User: Fold these one by one.
Assistant:
Number 1:
Amino acid sequence: MKYNIINTHTHNIDGVAKVTGRATYTVDVTLPGMLYGRILRSPHPHAKIINVDASKALALSGVKGVVTGKDTLGVKQGIWRRYSELCDEQILPLEKVRYIGEPVAAVAAISEEIAEAALDLIEVEYEVLPAVYDAMEAIKKEAPLVHEGVERNINVTRHIEWGDLEEAFEQSEYIREDWFKCSGQAHMCMETRSAVASYTPEGKLTVWTSTQSPYYMQALLAGVLGMKESDVRVIAHYVGGGFGGKFELDGAQFCASVLSMKLFRPVKIVFTREEDFIASKRRTPMYYYVRTGVKKDGTFMAREARVFTEGGAYTSMGATALYLTGFFHSFPYKWQAYRYDGYRVYTNTLPSTSMRGFGAPQAQFCSETQIDIIAKELGIDRFEIRRMNGHTTNYEVPGQATIASCGLEQCINKIEEWVKSRGKLPANRGIGISCYGFMSGGIFNWFDTPYSFSSAVVTINCDGKVDLHVGCQEIGQGSNTTMAMICAEELGVRVEDIRVHSGDTAECPPDLGAWGSRQTLMAGNATKMAAADAKRQLLEFATAKMGPNIVYDLDIKDRWIHLVARPERGIDYFELVKEALRGKEGQRIMGRGYYTPHRKGMISPAYSYGVQALEIDVDPETGKISLLNCVTAHDCGQPVNPLGVHGQLEGAISMAAGYGFLEDLPMEDGKILNPNLVDYKLIRAPEMPETEVIEIETYEPEGPFGAKEAGEGLTNPTAAALSTALYEALGITVKQLPITPEKVLNALREKAKEA
Amino acid sequence: MIKDFKYLRASSVKEALGFLSQHKEESKIICGGQSLLILLRQGLVATEYLIDIKQVNELSYIDFDAKKGLRMGATTTHRTIEKSDLIKKKYKVLSDMERYLAHIQVRNWGTIGGNLAHADPAGDPAPVLMALSGSIKVGSAKGERTISLDDFYTDLFETALEEGEMILEVQVPALAPKTGAAYKKFNILESDQGIISVAACVTLNGGSTCKEARICLGNAAPTVIRAKQAEAKLKGQKLDEGLLEEVGLAAVAECDPVADIHASEDFRRHLVGIFTKRMVKQAWEAAKKA
Amino acid sequence: MERHLLRITVNGQEHELYINPKTLLVEVIRDHLGLTGTKRGCETVSCGACTMIVEGMSVKGCSVLAMQVDGLKVTTVEGLEDHGKLHPIQKAFIDHGSYQCGFCTSGMLMSSKALLDENPKATIKEIREGLDGNLCRCTGYNSIVRAVDAVCKGQYREDEA
């Protein structure tokens, strides 16, 4: 399908601001009378707070105030608002601390230096309690309880099941079981957590912050501060990355707000990079047990998975990650029977939460690694075993989802073609593959919002330019541009005719925000609906003015309102707008749109698919892996913003490959050992492989112009592809992430011993 | 936050040495500051007086003559060394090493003197300079002396510099004919410091036996060290796979690495063996062609 | 604490400031002169978000003492644009989608400019090495490499409109 704007090379509309240094992020915000805040953090993984004495700090010249949990309403908050038992976090706790780095107090002063000096002057008396760090240790009877009354530290359980598992295993001709350990990962946004909060005498709070969801922040802040939502305004014009770590309430936002409410002055808190590592939440580490049964011909019969996740000290988004990992562990294949049991375990460590992929990268790593081994042992081609079992259009994941569009088979074919074209590889080189499928936003409303999930308003001004108000949040993924493109295409104008308003709860409609890869589909649908509404109103006037035969339709394309059957007969869009407004008593034409998924299964209204091939080189003497090439065939339905999609793919590869072999957050006694960018390793330009993307276009009926997500799903396959590449290159498997050189060498030694 | 200090800018060596002699242990020298500033910001180091020698241009030079060899002034930046045609021609191992030292931004401002004074056992220049039989000329208000790289490092992050002394110059002798050198660090990100590193310099008799060998190990002990037993194995010998194995094993036995989050002790030892073999072989090949 | 006089030329404009000598160059640029285009992303000289150009050399502003730049010329991202006319590297970034969240972008642009000024015909390998000091979490670097490569190949000759 060819469109004027959809799927054309379009410049990101925030481009000029970002390349000229004009874009102002939270850290760049300066307000009159602004104070600088810093947070005092717990040095203990588990301790009762006996007393906090801030007198010496308050006596320091330049210090304006200190707050602790006692200055708050003590609300236990969480993003799962529908389930109060999962709202377990007081950001400034009153009674005890549960992880090293947890906020205990916050201070505001006239300079950052004074605020930092003040931290050393706050005396906290703790009663240290026994702590537990490992999920498998924490579920033991004798383990200390992180939260009172939560037996065995089991925070959440999830269960997914279909088919007769025992029967399916009975019918299997080959059964295999494996244990895996998936690591955590830091979001490592270039912009650390930050907020400027300003509370004024009229009882209104404005918070500039780096967030993926201004609406969530608004609602959560109102909840913890005892305010009405509408008296809280959250502004996020430019956000320096989110990746799943910035849609929960964090210490910067909360402490800055509490301080500002006490002092009636703006307070800015910006996390140092070290704080960002130790005190902003991370990807969920998981222990995975997988048992799989297949027929000799490769037909997938039964899969059973048991997962324990290291939840850290609070629920955060971990409940969703627990569910999604179990769901996507079955993807993208048809299983006769499937059973998943997930247990999220509290530990005295940094809470684990959502991170791009939301449990699916872990799921894919385990699943695909095992599938390759099964294929090899049965002597079945690794592409064939995936193709024969892969999802297809209209497949129903029993009780969970209906797949309305699926380009998986085409993706497998394209990647198979590419791999074959590489021919025979030199020694110590291998190409690994991995399939994936992912959601385009979730159907869940655990936030318990009464609002539509996405809303949009299109306003046409007298000069024909359009103001598009959306609640979806631009965090770098290009949603402002994508919405502008959808609006322009639907309305029949150009992207440069659209001005997008986002990132301000006072000016924009509510939207759940940028997570779960939901915005293109959900906010896109809302935007399309709003544009269609505005267009319909314009066309009413056009029809009246042009007076065509009743059998003719009108449409607008590229600023030209015309008869569809006779496109040369029409009126200039700008001309018509002026007249149309007069006909509406001088009122601007406004179109409203919204979207909430209804009856779309248990997870998502639509699923993207893809297959990735990763070519690596391994030095068998040192275990060092080098990434050479990465080719991805993917189905995001109708691509909307191709420059954006390509960017998402390449960014996803660097993050997901990093997860596979480089990034880790090792801890000792609950303390993160590498909270800085020297010791936490990330892929840089020289390590990035050459990349290629192959678009497989399908049409997703639920998505705007047939579009599905592209951005989070792409993070799922790379760690898996790295693992299977290692298997191809050297015949070894490392089942513990990240796949470091040392682990590779150990696996090689094991293999040599077995030989 | 950096603790306040009194700032003294030196515009000449004489002035710098004067400040040092005046303020003694209450003062610290800063040149490029690429190592020192992080320590100051983290509060690991504090000083009453900071003597800034960044603009002491008389110490920024690269000179060479066939007799005396190479002399590089202490405030010469890494980037200058990396890009120097002279160094590329005469001591390619040095420019190759500089190319992967940290990042361009750090190399543009950081200096060879500052790097060597910082005494990080994982630093790139020290093992290479040691393998090339380099020395460091230091000066104080009382005079100058030259210290061999072999003796310059006394303990973890500690040097033989005495109170009132600062590095003035790095000296590398002219290379004997049939000499080749090689350096490599093991890392996953190419600009990272090495999990371990090995520098080898081999001089051949005629073309087939080893006249002299120097093997220096980085990040495999509290300081950069010479693997002398490994070196001894090569002396007078012809190179073959068997000898290389022995040399590697000897270096492994001589090193004393620590375990940290990046590598276990065993893995570091293993890598020392691998890289010693690789660098000796590479240096030998380069010597044959020289 | 005694303040010292710092004379610094930034984007062609001379400034005189009295500063605490422990002030970092990036603090002078962002906090004293209000040029917030340059960002800060770490405390260990690792991320490169604070990259700017001093006397033609790219440096990380967080690891340069401001006093050391006394009498020298500094260029920041704000100095690339000329009265609304974008620098070729800025145009290339926009064309190639070489930024997403934009936080690393100023640093990337300055590293790219320094690289191009020194080596206008850089190879892909040299471009990757030239950007090694700058972290990006969003783009995976390749679009940035493509943009710099396009400038090297002459696609943005400054005399073109």
Note: The domain at 26-129+189-242+246-279 of chain A is CATH 3.90.1170.50 (Aldehyde Oxidoreductase; domain 3).
Number 2:
Amino acid sequence: MSALLDVENLHIAFDTSRGQLQVVNDINFSIQAGEIFGLVGESGCGKSVTCLSILRLIPKPGGITQGRILFQGEDLLKKSSREMRRIRGNDIAMIFQDPFTSLNPVFKIGQQLFNVVRQHSTRNKTQARQHILSVLDNVGLPDVERVYNSYPHELSGGQQQRVMIAMALISEPQLIIADEPTTALDVTIQAQILRLLRALCDEHGISVLLITHDLGVVSEVCDRSAVLYAGKVVEAAATDELLAHPTHPYTQGLLAALPISSKKGSPLQAITGTVPANPGAIQGCVFASRCPHVFDACHEKHPPQFTVSDNHNAACFLLDDRIAKDNQPEAGSTYE
Amino acid sequence: MSISKLFLGKRGEKLPDDNFDAPPTERSGWHHTLYVIQRDVLAMFSVGWIVLILFCAVFAPVISPYPDQGRGRNNAEARLLPPSTNTLLGTDNLGRDMLSRLIFGARPAILSALVVVTAAVIIGTPLGAVAGYYGGWIDELIMRITDLFLAFPSLLLAMAIVSFAGPSLMNAVLALVVSWWPWYTRLVRSTTRSLRAQYFVEAARSIGVKDRVIITRHILPNTITPIIVQATIDIGTVILATTSLAFIGLGTQAPNADWGLMIEEGRQFLRQAWWYSMFPGIAIFLTVLAFNLIGDTLRDIFDPRQYR
Amino acid sequence: MQKIEYTVRRLFLSVVVLLGMTVVTFMLTRIVPSNPAALYLGNRARPEQIEAAIEELGLNDPLPEQYVRYLDDLLHGDLGESLATRRPVTLEITSRLAATGELLLVSLLIAIVVGIPLGVFSAQLHGKPADIFVRAFSIIGVSLPQFWLGLLLQLTFGLGLGLPLASRIDSSLRFTSPIQDITGFFLFDSLVTGNWVAFQDVALHLILPAVTLAAYPIGLIARMTRATMLEVMQQNYIRTAEAYGLNSRLIVYRYALKNAIIPTLTVIGLTLAYSLTGAFYVEIIFNWPGLGLFTARSFLNLDFPAIMGITLFGATGYILINLLIDLLQAYIDPRVSLS
């Protein structure tokens, strides 16, 4: 079965007054139909810009410098702006992190959703309104008539995010890209939104690309996940497998840093060092400067993806039998 | 470049490959300012023109072809002559060479503008800083007085003062200073207020730094950039004001040369000697334009929210 | 509730400022270098007449008493008598309001209709080569000396194309096609009474002065619209609109503009206030029979009562406009802080 979305060799760079900044450096991943795919990483690792690139919405001075993004087999990077407009909000819909600023403050909710319906379908006024009301109901909003006639600032954060999800669902897309949809919300609302996304996937077969920095979110709803660091995918696997057998030292570090992982009374584990400012300039592995298992080969070039097991890859020389035989710790070991 | 390229642009397109090798360059503050100015055609023109005008103002007697006429001596035979090789911009009603008159006219324009703006800044800044920093009744008091002065349209106030004190350039300048300082009080006050609310001020106060020191060493230096932008633009605006006042007879008096005065003098000869009113107007226009453009460029440079 | 509180407070403050102004103008009338009584009577007055006049005008009374009387007169709408025409200053002012008002309104309309689209257009060009031209255009608007622009237009369009150079209307029309006086606004009155001849003539007379007056406001409005549009286009909700494939005309002219208009309203109010002084010059140049021309003549003739009356009137108008702008802003934009 061919993938719904296939990202190949994606490179994204920003043109700044201090030269070109490589933000995403050769990313590859694919999403199947009917699954929730998680993209995990710290802030600045390039995950947001990756999902913007799928819809070709990267603001200047940034741009895609290389790669292909195949949606249902067609390269989105080759499409004209008119074709992209037909895809945006229609086949692929996006939900943003802060729902409050993502809605136009001077227009009513109903009006904003109505504009989307009119853009992508031929429904007349009454049909459009009916459809909107039923979608608002589907996402779990109470009193849909009132919401329809409200302004964004009259709703709570959780309600606003549900409205955004409704906007995404309006044209029955195949893929929803959700950029940290729960980060700005209360923990209780978080759970509800995540459950909603899961239900949409299970019942309607909509795939979701879920961006997050929170491993808890990933473990809750994602079928498969990829870990991003400094613009590169360092590990990708089915979520259960990833959490059970983290192979890349960065993934291991992330899991160890969770408060749950530490023994009560002992200091919290942290990954020493900081994310490199200009990862494009680094010759070897981008994680080398912070990796506890670093050795010579790590500084020569960035490691390619090695297979750990079925559908589980990691980009680490520790997995290269030829080089690291002596240094190799057991796959799946955690920090002590 | 095709016309459509002038107007179109697309988001998220691929960058051309030659961007890969752009070397990062570090520039210091002033250096960066000069660099931006130098790249902007309009800014370069503005700087050039301003330098020219300053030059005229300072060296008027040296560079004008007929300095006496510039100061006001008549030349009755040469009345209302069109531009020629002798008199490049023509002559006025009293036979005086327009070019010389224009060059001398730069003096009241620039001088009065510099005086007004400097005085307004000197008066307005401390008041604004005190009002913004201390708040409370001092703030209320200063702001009410400021509002009072701001309530009068500056022209009206200037006209009222000058018509009572007698029309002259000096009185016009004084009147303008009176109407101008409140703007700087307001500007400095709002900047000070937002700075005051920042944590570093709280921190400084908590370790016992005196208020006066905080204001002079921490707050005022941060108000310099908005003041500079505003002052630059204001120089142009004051030139408009002084020439307007001269136009209605409340500023520079004849036979002194003043761009606004010259426009008024030339009004009755509009049909037969268009150069009389037109050239001084162009001079005013280009000078004000230059200051506005530079002020705009400075604002773009100093504003952290870059849209470029 | 907060809004009402705010309104009351602003009203109160405006009254305070107005009172302050009356003090200032009162003081100015008493600081007049020459003897006000002598001025009142004219050059050929004899000393005894001047003495009598001083008594009559109450100029020997203590200042506070004079001030109270002054205030009292003001509240009754009495601004004194014009030295030049011997008619009440208030009457001189009110009879000319319509002429100046019409000029102001038409120029404001021109400024909005030209300025806002210019600003939107210029925002869209941001960063592209043509941006320079548009930036220059709006900066030109605020750099032009208005009195000179009027002359320039007179020269090119008046002498060149034969557009009328002065006055509001061809005086012969008073006999051939008189305009019925409904509001005092010639354009409106002639339109509603079907007086096409007069309407055409009035419109032609209005073009040059209104355009001259509109130049500066066009510049201000265009720049403000451009700045707010640029800021609005950076907002997240615009990104959302793009992410959902909405077409760019909808995004710019409805989603963005509706947000950008709010701060622009303030500028529009400011330009109205600015135009009060601009109208002064325009009226002089085009011999427009309005308040500005009267002001000029009063200053020229040193008609002090008229001068003070106009100053007070002008300043009051200015304050009222600013007050209206502030209140309008507070009511339209709920995000405005009312503290």
Note: The mean pLDDT of chain C is 79.
Number 3:
Amino acid sequence: MRMKRKRRIHHFGEWAALIALVIFLAPACATKRYWGPTMGRSADSQFTPTDALEKALKPASFDQYRGRTVWVDAFTLTERTGEESAEERFLRSWLAEKLLSQGARIAPAKNQSEVILDVKARVFGVNQTRRDFILLFYMEKTHAIVDLHLNFYERESGKILQAEDLKGEVRYREYYIFYMIGPIKTIH
Amino acid sequence: MVASLTLILALLPACAYKDYCPPGLGTSADLQSMLAKSLESNLREIPFDPAGKRVDLHVRAWGTFRQPMGLEGYVKSLFREWIVSRGGEVGPGQFQMTVFLPVLGHSAVRRDLSYQYVPIYYSERFRTTARMIVVIKDAAGNTLEVWQKGEGADVADIFLIRILGPFDIPTKK
């Protein structure tokens, strides 16, 4: 009888310890949240595509347009409120800077250019995946992809001078151990 | 004690979720990629040879984007490249090509299979629909050809016990 009682107390103690452990671990859980539209686009969703864009443009050489006047047109499949999306504006300006740094000139108007750089972004954005290993581990992964198709047209003749595909990817992860320790950040 | 802890951990395995929450994320990379693939696959089958022809190109879109002019610009750029790369020219002349995009959109279906609260299988199936109508006219305005195609793309991301994955399964090209 006494043995049975002892065993019951022992079991009760085990469960109490377990519940105490859960209660200790469960609070202070870290969760990254974005509340759009007040927060706008998250910082992770901004810096990863720009890093991916930089990677995509690394092998590109615009040397053959040195001294020539270029107009940049950018097209994406992203959401917009006006005629031009934020991605298109950014892409156009970024490429204009790349061209300038390699000796090309940017035309003040399309009809004053010698070459038209037509950029189609098949992808310029991120995918986000969240993983929870409840009690132990929580991770947010932001995977940015930039997939560009570039066409250089001679404005006068309309002929294609050069066509190029450029692709860049960046994976950014944030880990939280026990939902409390972190974020531990990695970028690839 | 250890057994109980193992049991709890086994019952509460890792949960993976793909988050699509604009505007925090913008238009997801998956969606853009699938829309681009849908448009490109439709373009491959147009029964018109633009070689040696001058084509006046117009695009009219209606669909998923708040402002269709952006989509029209993308499609126009795609068609321009298609015409020029096949030896044609873009501009007012012999032929007029009007591209209508009555549908360019997507839907997502999420499936969860669990047993006794243990998630076994979770998938997100992403399907795009792109319907394209191409009307080709001569300089006098007579319709020479009307071609239409409804091609989409279909991709499923599968997670097993919510920790293994995602496995990308293209269900239709």
Note: Chain B has three helices and seven strands.
Number 4:
Amino acid sequence: MKDSLKQFVDGHRSEFDHREPSDKVWDGIKNSLPNRTLWNNVILWRAAAVLFFGISAVLFTLGSFQSGNKVERSQLQGEFTDLEAFYSEQIADKVDLISDIQEIEDEEFAQDFAKLEAMYQVLREQMKTHPTQQVKDALILNLLVRIDLLNQQIKNLEDSRKEEQQPEV
Amino acid sequence: MYNTGYRIVNDKDEAEDVLQEAFISAFNSLDTYRGDSTFGAWLKRIVINKAINQLNKRKTERIPEDDRWDVKAEEVEDALEGYPFTVEKVRAAIEALPDGYRSVLSLYLLEGYDHAEIGEILGVTESTSKSQFNRAKKKLKEILGAV
């Protein structure tokens, strides 16, 4: 049977997400997050990850964004596509480099990396439907955080290789 | 996410508390995210669970007392051609529904869960969810003055 209410809601879905939370929510989240020491092996990266999660949280909180006009939207998408291609290539190169040195055995590293990738996919969907500067920034930050994480991993692997190569005294 | 929580608890301050708790809880449980659903869907489910808990804290009956549980899903006459109301009126009518009806209706219509999933979220059977949804629709039409 045709459901006129469902058709009505589907046709106006975004208009039902009209409410926005106050800044108090964001302050509360921000004040609570730094206590967590989930990724305590790399302080700088952890801080970046926390920042990224915070930005994601705000973006999810806002739900729908005031997207600009069509020209602004396609400009944002175009800028993002270029940056995404640039940083994604760097990420792929670094992953290859790590794989050449050794298999990724660091479970925590692999999980953190996968979580960032998952967050990235959600934001990427948002970028397709509601492109804004905020979403673009969060996506770029996610890529940069992953690059930083990979750099740290490469440095750790190189350090341990140097140690192995040093002659025993 | 805020709107999802708001539609269940129907209160600004409580919806903000729910959202804050949900995000903090999600961050602290990131290691339990298995990737079998999208990150957004995982996060939304946490928001909904927190909101339902908040409703329960209020000791509000999720389903009005005069309704029987586990009743067969009834079909509701849907004679309206189109839906001759404004979004503002429909939003206000949804907010005027009793907690139980509002939760089921929002989860089905706006959050996109099916009745089996809603049953799992609310701890009722699939047919109860269907039945409550139909009753919620009927009540909504009454509020809108369409019946």
Note: Chain B is about 60% helix and 0% strand.
